[in-house]
Amino acid sequence: MSDEALAAVFIIVGVFFAFWLYILLPANMAAARGRSAFGWVLLSLLFSPILACLLLMLLGNNPNSRR
Fold it and tell me: Residues 51, 20, 63, 58: what is their CA dihedral angle, to the nearest 10 degrees?
């Protein structure tokens, strides 16, 4: 495998990991807790996905959500 192909593979894997970390992880965590997925994705994009996930874990389930 050439160096260019290996670099392209690493870039593709990095993009998928970033997409998962910044968008899919907070959205799934928020939806599972009855919170706005869009709002939490926006928060993770503006500040940090780690901060958004930590806040979601600390806040827990939304007591006003209808399940």
Answer: -30
Burial classification of residue 16, based on how many CB atoms lie within 10 Å of its CB (0-12 exposed, 13-18 middle, 19 or more buried): exposed
Cα gap 56→66, rounded to integer Å = 18
Mean pLDDT across the chain: 91
Q: Return the domain boundaries, the chain.
A: 3-59
CA dihedral 36, 55, 59, 61 (to 10 degrees): 40
In this prediction, residues 16-33 reach a mean pLDDT of 92
Structure pTM? 0.78
Average pLDDT for residues 2-24, to the nearest whole number?
92
